[in-house]
């Protein structure tokens, strides 16, 4: 398995763990009572802002840690350049991930249109975001493994 | 509808004919990662025209000696 394949798998695993832990930690802290109260929207605004910040910090930490451990375990230098194949795979994987996010976004809007609460809509949107990351990383792994 | 064409290459053979050049050495000369050279040799990646020409220049051979159409079965 190449460095890029291992990196894609590590990113896949870390995004699942980060989002699952964050969701499990934050969901019970939703404001109770009126589902349309301003506190609900404030909560979800903070929810996504903190998630973005935490994800970026942890992703950077995981990438650095992975590179160090990979160098020690595999005794091979980490590729320092991103070449045309890496960019093509990244582009294709991002496009597939974007489709997944679009489906999640549409489902969230359908939920809202059907009269479900804003919290339900935000949860569906969050799941769509996670699905998009998972599909993105898995697609990258797949393209590295099977060719592009 | 046009038939799918398969592009094959002689990169592995050309490497060995050029003083048993390693994949890493070739990768450094054309500006890609070693994994991309591996993918090209295994037929898992068809490079851009620019990279194809870079490979031909390194081996000092015409492009069609590096890449060629695999005859249909």
How would you describe what is shown here?
The complex is a heterodimer of chains A (148) and B (73). Chain A has four helices and no strands. Chain A is mainly α. Chain A has one domain. Chain B is mainly alpha-helical and 73 residues long. Chain B has a domain of 34 residues. Chain B has five helices and two strands; from the N terminus they run βαααααβ. Chain B is globular. Chain B starts with 6 loop residues before the first strand and ends with a strand. The chains are: A mainly alpha (148), B mainly alpha (73). At the A-B interface, helix 3 of A face helix 3 of B.
List keywords for this structure.
heterodimer, A: 148 residues, mainly alpha, 81% helix, elongated, B: 73 residues, two-stranded antiparallel sheet, 5 helices
List the helices and strands and how they pair.
The complex is a heterodimer of chains A (148) and B (73).
Chain A: H1 3-26, H2 38-74, H3 84-113, H4 118-146
Helix pairs in contact in A: 1-2, 1-4, 2-4, 3-4
Chain B: E1 7-9, H1 11-17, H2 23-30, H3 34-41, H4 49-59, H5 63-66, E2 67-69
Helix pairs in contact in B: 2-3
């Amino acid at each position: 398995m190449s460095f890029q394949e291992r990196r894609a798998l590590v990113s896949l695993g870390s995004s699942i763990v980060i989002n699952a832990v964050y969701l499990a930690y934050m969901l019970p802290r939703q404001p109770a009572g009126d589902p349309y109260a301003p506190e609900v929207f404030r909560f979800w605004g903070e929810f996504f802002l903190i998630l973005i910040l935490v994800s970026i910090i942890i992703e950077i930490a995981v990438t650095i840690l992975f590179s160090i451990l990979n160098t020690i375990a595999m005794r091979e230098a980490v590729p320092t350049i991103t070449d045309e194949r890496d960019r093509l795979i990244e582009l294709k994987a991002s496009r597939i991930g974007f489709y997944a996010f679009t489906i999640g976004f549409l489902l969230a809007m359908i939920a809202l249109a059907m009269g479900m609460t804003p919290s339900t809509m935000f949860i569906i949107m969050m799941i769509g975001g996670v699905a998009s990351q998972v599909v993105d990383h898995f697609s990258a792994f797949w393209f590295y493994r099977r060719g592009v | 509808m046009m038939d799918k064409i398969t592009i094959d290459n002689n990169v592995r053979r050309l490497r060995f004919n050029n003083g048993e050049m390693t994949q890493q050495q070739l990768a450094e000369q054309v500006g890609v990662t070693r994994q991309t050279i591996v993918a090209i040799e295994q037929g898992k990646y068809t490079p851009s025209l620019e990279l194809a020409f870079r490979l031909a220049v390194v081996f000092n051979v015409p492009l069609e000696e590096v890449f060629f159409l695999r005859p249909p079965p």
